[in-house]
Amino acid sequence: RLKGGDELELARLLSGNGKAEAYALAGKYEISHLLSLKTAVYDEYEKFRLKLAIAMLTNPLVLLLEEPFLKLSAADQAKAVGALTDYLAGGGAILIGSRRPHEFSSISPT
Q1: Average pLDDT of 37-58?
Q2: What's the Rg (C-alpha) of the chain?
Q3: Minimal CA–CA distance to 30: which of 88, 76, 93?
Q4: How confident is the model at residue 62 (pLDDT cuts 50, 70, 90)?
């Protein structure tokens, strides 16, 4: 099982981005502390942020998310909404698959 730093490094190499961009995304999504962990056990919000940082390395036009808020606390959901709103404000699009669409009504570009 890859650690957070290993996952981010692999994604960086595959996307052709530099370390500076990868570490900037780690800082933006507040996962810098995960990069040096010796374990791959994260809470649900750490997993969400790590996956989002990895996805952002490719500068995607569209994010495809399946149940992105599943198992997140209300506070973590609010933070995730902020991250996704920032992405939309930058011109991206999000396609979400969920059984609870009401959770996403507050995600909109500002």
Answers
A1: 79
A2: 14
A3: 76
A4: very high
Q: Which residues contact 32 (CB under 8 A, 6 or more apart)?
A: 23, 26
Q: Which two tokens stand for residue 26?
A: 């780690």
Half-sphere exposure of 82 (CA within 13 A, CB side): 11
Tokens at 5, concatenated: 């730093």
**Alpha-carbon distance 81 to 75, whole Å?**
10
Average pLDDT, rounded, for the chain: 81
Residue 106 near residue 77, CB atoms below 8 Å: no
Contact 85, 108 (CB under 8 A): yes
Higher-scoring residue by pLDDT: 13, 40: 13
Do the beta carbons of residue 4 and residue 30 sit within 8 Å?
Answer: no
Residue 72 CA, chain-centre distance (Å), reads 13
Closest alpha carbon to 48 in 24, 20, 17, 72: 72
Pick from 75, 57, 70, 74: which is nearest to 96 by CA?
A: 70
